[in-house]
Amino acid sequence: MIVVPLAVPRTSPVLRRLIDPEQRPSVRAGLTVETLPPGVRLDQLPYGSAESVTVVLSGRLSAAGRILSPGEALHHRPGSTCRLTAVRGAPTTVLTVRPTPSRAGIPAQRSGPGPARAWRQVEVATVDLEPGGLCGPFEERAADVFLLVLSGPGVFLGELGEVPLYPGDLVYARAKERYGLRAGSHRPVTAVLGRIHAPGAEPGPEWDVKPMRSGRVRPQS
To answer: Is the pLDDT of residue 10 over 70?
Structure first.
């Protein structure tokens, strides 16, 4: 388990590497966070044969003809490019998730005479818990997991017991490590939940020409 307190910067422009596969070879993905001043454009460059995911943490982001709010994400197909623009009015902070190149081969699968389908390695959702609500604990046997708190205090339930979390804190759990989230007794908590699977472990929707948007998910407590 890796805990990164105050992972989200409060000023702009800032680029911070949260999880670095070169320093931690056992992780399945690299995570970076960047805060953009209003109106600034950022080009999402192609990344070989691997997909990548951009998650909005604060502010609003314009990409692929859409406006994304905190907790929403865009999935970029392998080798694709995309221009991201921070909407004017306030800085925008984004989290980028990129699987490690050594594990990034995404095999194609065929079912009958239809076209081949791509397999996603990364999936991202938003967890919303009411005061005292509980999500987990779970154990992903074949996926790394990360939780990044957007608002409200919470408690991470992991291998080392309970870890208090506050807005901007990040926890990364490797495959086979337990993880869960409990909201505080007085305030709700919202967090980004991400899973990084081994290549080919989970089928995903077919890749489109444009990035694909992840909706908000409210798991049962």
So the answer is: yes
Same domain, 12 and 94: yes
CA distances to 6, 122, 127, 188, 189 from 152, rounded to whole Å, are 14, 25, 12, 6, 4
d(CA 159, CA 101): 28
Is 94 found in the same domain as 9?
Answer: yes
Q: Are residues 128 and 84 in the same domain?
A: no
Q: How confident is the model at residue 47, as a pLDDT?
A: 62
Dig out the tokens for 87 from the structure. Answer: 């909407």
The three-point CA angle 165-198-69 to 5° equals 45
In a domain, 111, yes or no: no
- Tell me the pTM: 0.80
CA distance linking residue 205 with residue 192, whole number of Å: 20
Range of the domain at 189: 122-197
Q: Which residues pair with 67 in a beta bridge?
A: 62
Cross-strand partners of 34:
15, 94
Q: Is residue 215 part of a domain?
A: no
Sheet of 14-19, strand order: 14-19, 29-36, 92-99, 52-58, 73-76, 212-214
Q: CA neighbours within 13 Å on the CB side: how many for 102?
A: 7
pLDDT tens per residue across span 33-80: 999 888 888 777 656 667 888 999 999 999 878 898 888 888 888 777
Domain CATH code at residue 88: 2.60.120.10
